[in-house]
Amino acid sequence: DYHRQLWDNRESNDRNAHGCWDGVFAVARVRIISDELVGSVIALDEVIGLIERGFAADARGDHRNFSVVRERLAPAHSGIFGIKSGIAGTTLGFKAGGFWPGNRTSGVLPQQSTMVLFDPDTVQPVTLIGANRITGLRTGAAGAVAAKHLARSDSRSVAIIGCGAQGKMQL
Q1: Residue 161 confidence (pLDDT)
Q2: Which ranges in 11-160 belong to alpha helices (H)?
């Protein structure tokens, strides 16, 4: 095919101003970070600080969240699929995933998420992240930040409404 011929006939000195051979697009190098790796390198205490700074940035208008997409799928899939996206400084990306109750029967978590981060100058993907762990950490951290700023100073107990992984993260 045409692109294969261009690739096969390229010469090392035929690169254009973008460092690509004419007619051949540069292929992005994408880092892949697993859920397991995320869980081994970041702790809830760190995430709480990040979320607190993120809420402050949101209040200042320092970043932009795009419209959320959330769709209930046909009965064959019996799930809800969604996409959350935005840009903050040099970070452009989205988290896609959903809730598939039927996953439990096959031993897979019903809630699944993946994040993709892009170079905001070229929109080339740079990182693919298994985001189940990040989602749980973010949810727990958001609850901690809310409690810190909204709870009475003399509070001695907490009620957790919810169950499963999300309830555990809130605790």
Answers
A1: 75
A2: 35-41, 44-60, 132-150
Compare 82 and 7 and report the one with higher pLDDT: 82
Contact 167, 156 (CB under 8 A): no
Sequence-distant (6+) residues with CB within 8 A of 25 are none
E strands present in 59-110: 63-65, 69-72, 80-88, 91-99
Neighbours of 169 (CB within 10 A): 22
Q: So what's the pLDDT on residue 1?
A: 46
Q: Which residues are catalytic?
A: 95
Query: Is there a contact between 81 and 110 (Cβ–Cβ < 8 Å)?
Result: no
In whole angstroms, give the CA distance from residue 133 to residue 136.
Answer: 5
Q: Are 24 and 3 in contact (CB under 8 A)?
A: yes
pTM, two decimal places: 0.75
Closest CA to 53 of 62, 66, 42: 62
pLDDT digits (tens, 9 = 90+) for 97-117: 999 988 889 999 899 999 999
Given this model, what pLDDT does residue 47 score?
A: 93
Distance between CA atoms of 88 and 107, rounded to whole angstroms? 36
CB 139 within 8 A of CB 160: no
pLDDT at 164 over 80: no
Q: Count CB neighbours of 156 within 10 A.
A: 5
Report the C-alpha gap between 91 and 125 in whole angstroms: 11
